[in-house]
Each structure stands twice: as C-alpha cells, then as structure tokens.
Amino acid sequence: MTSGKIMLDVEKYTAAFIYLLSSMGKIEGKKKAYKLMYFLDFDFFEAYEKPFMGETYKALPMGPAPCYFDVLASNLHEEKTIDIKAEKKALTHDNDTIIYIPKKSKEYAFSKEEKKMMDRIVRVYGNQTGKQLEDLSHSQAPYKAVDIGDVIPYEYSFYRETADLTD
Fold first, then answer.
1. Radius of gyration of the chain, Cα coordinates, nearest whole angstrom
2. Following DSSP, what letter does each residue of 39-88 receive, concatenated?
C-alpha cells in the first residue's frame, strides 16, 4: 500500500502523455485523454502498488477526471510540444471535440515496467472511444465507491477485476 501523501510528478506526467499521444498519433476527445491517464495511473497502481504519475482523480458524471491534465496540456501547447484543435465531430452534442496531436517528443527515462504499462494502455484502451472508456470506468469499483465530486483513492484499484496488468 502507499505510505504518505502521493505527489504529482509533472515531468513524468507530461512525458507519459506525449508518449501515449505519439504512440497513437493523436487522441480525439478530452474524455478519452482523461480516461487514458486514469487507467495509466490506476492500472500501474494495481500492478505495482504505486501511482504512475500521482495525478488526483475526481469522480465526475462522465467518469474519473484528472485535476491537473488541462493545465499540463495547455502548457505543452504553449511550448509547441502538442497541438490542440477543436473540431465539430458529432451531431448529437453541441461541444467541439478536442483533438491532441503530438509535435515534439519529450525525453524521459521510463523504467521497463513504466514503458510496458504505457504500451499496454495504448494496446488495451487506445482504440476505444471516450464513451466506451467512460462506460468501462463507470463499471469499476473505484468510481462506484465514491460520490460525484469526491477524489478516487488509488487503493480502490485493488477492487477491480483487471486482466493481467504486467503482460
């Protein structure tokens, strides 16, 4: 289990987002980006008993949402590491779809386990839509165990029925 307060690792967080983005070519939708980061942190925690990036996730109506993602993505956009575009994608809602596109890579010395987990996130969740990832996150214990607006404790990841996380 964890000991003490979990700290956000901004350098690792931004490098991990760029890695996922580069591996996928782009990420369509803020909801999908949020869920990919959530699954990265919670799958890693379940497998290794420590968070990947240390982000704080709150339960919102559309599923777990990272607290610092928007600021970090905005910073990456300002430094021209990623491009952020808004496109009208769906006729069913009024909101534009936010699309994240990599422009530069970020060097970071990921461990073998970290790189393996990021590749797993791309392989397992990368082809799913934001809505599919929302539904998946809603079906799992960490989201179900807290009220809307509450922080989701990392320890709740142990109550999911997740396939082998170290494959």
1. 15
2. HHHHHHHHHHSS-SS---EEEETTEEEESSHHHHHHHHHHTTSEEEEEE-
**C-alpha span between 163 and 37 (Å, rounded):** 18
The owner of tokens 């339960």 is 59
> What residue ranges do the domains of the chain occupy?
10-159
pLDDT tens string 108-166: 999 999 999 999 999 999 999 999 999 999 999 899 999 999 999 999 888 876 655 55
Residue 14 · residue 100 · CB < 8 Å:
no
The gap between the terminal CA atoms of the chain, to the nearest Å, is: 22
DSSP bridge partners of 64 = 59
* pTM score of the predicted model: 0.90
Encoding tokens for residue 152? 């989701």
